[in-house]
């Protein structure tokens, strides 16, 4: 695979190392001369000096044959531009963008820049995962595929406590994929009985969070976003 | 016509003044309060007294754009110092707020051309300057 990475900061550098160690071909593009020089010794021909939002710089890096373009500069507008041009002008099939300010997430979505990864959002999710007062935890959202995986802790007053999985009729578009109990997880069988304190992992169509919460944690509050 | 101008540097402020003088309703958004002085400079009345609107805020902030009146704008002009900022906010104006006409200052001629093909009205001062220099270099112009 050939990947172009815009931005040789901490994220870009480490991604490049990782991809190179997995024997992928990589070109990192860095617009700060000093940052470029600091990394040139390590990356040699795999790093180029230039502004990745300039079309000729992308072309010099061989964007026409890139399988993946990753924009991880510290500037959200630049990341949007690099990915938009890669996707719409050079028809690169896979792009990944970094969102520096979570408030800009909507802009990435509006302009079709997906996936857009925000470190702040990731840390927030981890916090939610660790803090039990949230009834529902989003573990993974695949926006393009329109699927998400959530986790719910079963409360004592849940109508599903004591029910067999086969007897629980969930809304269309929901499936229990795993139950975590006593520190270990297992894939439930039809005769598995749901207990209070279980952590239930479900895969769902987006938008079903509210209705599914009622089954397992009727008084739990959905995670605030 | 209601014109919203984001970025009141030399270009944005001059366009704002002439649009106001031409009888349009004009709102200016800039992150630097000092830009307001550029709008007042050389005028007999202050920008507000002449009927202009000025909002301090950054262009990517949806709240600032709304405060500056983007929801009622007929024309959106992106004239901040950054090409990429201009291209992103002009697309936000088009796609999120459905502003009919978005005009973008793009210094880089290559990006101006490509985004022009994508439906943005781009103006590249660099491109015009290149043409002027070419003309100035033509034999009959060199004296």
Lay out the secondary structure:
The complex is a heterodimer of chains A (225) and B (143).
Chain A: E1 2-6, H1 10-21, E2 25-30, H2 33-43, E3 47-49, H3 55-60, E4 68-71, H4 76-89, E5 94-99, H5 105-110, E6 116-118, H6 119-130, E7 136-142, E8 147-153, E9 174-181, E10 184-186, E11 199-204, H7 209-216
Parallel strand pairs in A: 1-2, 1-4, 2-3, 4-5, 5-6
Antiparallel strand pairs in A: 7-8, 8-11, 9-10, 9-11
Chain B: E1 2-6, H1 10-21, E2 25-30, H2 35-40, E3 53-56, H3 62-67, E4 75-78, H4 83-95, E5 101-105, H5 109-117, E6 121-123, H6 125-137
Parallel strand pairs in B: 1-2, 1-4, 2-3, 4-5, 5-6
Explain how this protein is built.
The complex is a heterodimer of chains A (225) and B (143). With 225 residues, chain A is an alpha/beta fold. Chain A is 31% helix and 26% strand. Chain A is built from 7 helices and 11 strands. In chain A, strand 1, helix 1 (10-21) and strand 2 form a beta-alpha-beta unit. With 143 residues, chain B is α/β, with parallel strands linked by helices. Chain B has one domain (2-137): NAD(P)-binding Rossmann-like Domain (Rossmann fold, 3-Layer(aba) Sandwich), CATH 3.40.50. Helix content of chain B is 41%, strand content 19%. Chain B has a 6-stranded parallel sheet, sandwiched between helices. In chain B, helix 1 (10-21) links the parallel strand 1 and strand 2 (25-30). The longest helix of chain B has 13 residues, at 83-95. Classes of the chains: A alpha/beta (225), B alpha/beta (143).
């Amino acid at each position: 695979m050939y990947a172009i990475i815009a931005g040789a900061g901490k994220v870009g550098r480490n991604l490049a190392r990782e991809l190179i160690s997995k024997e992928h071909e990589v070109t990192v593009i860095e617009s700060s001369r000093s940052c470029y020089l600091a990394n040139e010794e390590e990356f040699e021909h795999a790093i180029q000096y230039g502004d990745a939002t300039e079309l000729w710089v992308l072309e010099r890096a061989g964007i026409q044959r890139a399988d993946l373009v990753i924009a991880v500069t510290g500037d959200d507008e630049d990341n949007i531009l690099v990915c938009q041009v890669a996707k719409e002008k050079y028809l690169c099939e896979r792009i990944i963008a970094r969102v520096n300010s979570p408030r800009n997430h909507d802009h990435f979505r509006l302009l079709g820049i997906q996936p857009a990864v925000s470190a702040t959002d990731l840390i927030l999710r981890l916090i939610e995962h660790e803090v039990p007062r949230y009834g529902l935890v989003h573990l993974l959202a695949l926006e393009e595929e329109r699927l998400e995986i959530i986790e719910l802790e079963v409360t004592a007053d849940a109508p599903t406590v004591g029910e067999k999985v086969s007897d629980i009729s969930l809304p269309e578009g929901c499936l229990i994929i795993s139950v975590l109990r006593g520190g270990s997880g297992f894939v439930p069988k039809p005769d598995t009985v749901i207990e209070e304190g279980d952590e239930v992992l479900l895969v769902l169509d987006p938008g079903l969070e509210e209705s599914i919460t009622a089954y397992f944690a009727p008084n739990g509050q959905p995670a605030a976003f | 016509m209601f014109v919203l101008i984001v970025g009141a540097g030399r270009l944005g402020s001059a366009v704002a003044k002439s649009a106001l003088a031409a009888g349009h309703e004009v709102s200016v958004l800039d992150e630097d309060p000092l830009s307001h002085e550029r709008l007042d400079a050389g005028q007999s009345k202050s920008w507000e007294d002449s009927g202009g609107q000025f909002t301090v805020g950054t262009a990517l902030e949806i709240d600032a754009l709304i405060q500056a009146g983007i929801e009622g704008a007929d024309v959106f002009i992106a004239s901040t110092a950054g090409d990429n900022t201009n291209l992103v906010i002009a697309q936000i104006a088009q796609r999120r707020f459905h502003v009919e006409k978005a005009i973008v200052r793009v210094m880089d001629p290559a990006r101006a051309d490509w985004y022009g093909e994508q439906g943005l009205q781009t103006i590249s001062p660099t491109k015009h300057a290149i043409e002027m220099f070419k003309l100035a270099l033509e034999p009959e112009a060199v004296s």
